[in-house]
Amino acid sequence: VQLQASGGGLVQPGGSLRLSCAASGDIFSINTVHWYRQAPGKQRDMVATILKDGTVGYAASVKGRFTISRDNAKNTVYLQMNSLKPEDTAVYYCNADISITARAQSNFWGQGTQVTVSS
Predict the structure, then answer these.
(1) For the segment 69-86, what is each residue's pLDDT rounded down to a tens digit?
(2) Which residues, other chains included, contact 88 with Cβ-Cβ below 8 Å and sequence gap of 6+?
(3) Is the dihedral of CA 70, 27, 31, 66 positive or negative?
(4) From residue 78, how far is each of 21, 35, 41, 71 by CA, in Å?
(5) Which residue in 33, 36, 52 sits closest to 44, CA to CA?
(6) pLDDT tens, 85-114?
(7) Residues 58-71 pLDDT 10s
């Protein structure tokens, strides 16, 4: 199983980006998925979470600006980021609990995708 994160880039303050986290391989089901971010010299922090039933949660710093969603048919989770601020600059990572059988679940990390918010 692999997670592929994509969609990062350079954007001006106030702009938008949409990140994607696509899972591939022998997948029975994708359960909880998180987006994390890590700025230079700082710890990796959770940004948003989506459960298998679609329940979502957000860090206070992004609530109202970011939206996490999932397309189960495509094994993909998205992070729509609006009203971006310079402090959102970081490497963004997806993390997922994936079942490869009905009884076996493992945790996977995607590679990071850089988001830079600057004028």
Answers:
(1) 999 999 999 999 999 999
(2) 37, 62, 81, 115, 117
(3) negative
(4) 6, 9, 26, 8
(5) 36
(6) 999 999 999 999 999 888 889 999 999 999
(7) 999 999 999 999 99
DSSP letter at 44 equals -
C-alpha 4/C-alpha 113 separation (Å) is 9
Q: From its phi and psi, is residue 41 left (phi > 0), alpha (psi between -120 and 50) or beta?
A: left
Reading the block at residue 41, the tokens are 């010299």
3-class DSSP state of 101: coil
CA angle 102, 30, 78 (to 5 degrees): 175
Q: What is the pLDDT of residue 102?
A: 81
Residues 6+ apart with CB under 8 A from 112: 5, 38, 91, 92, 93
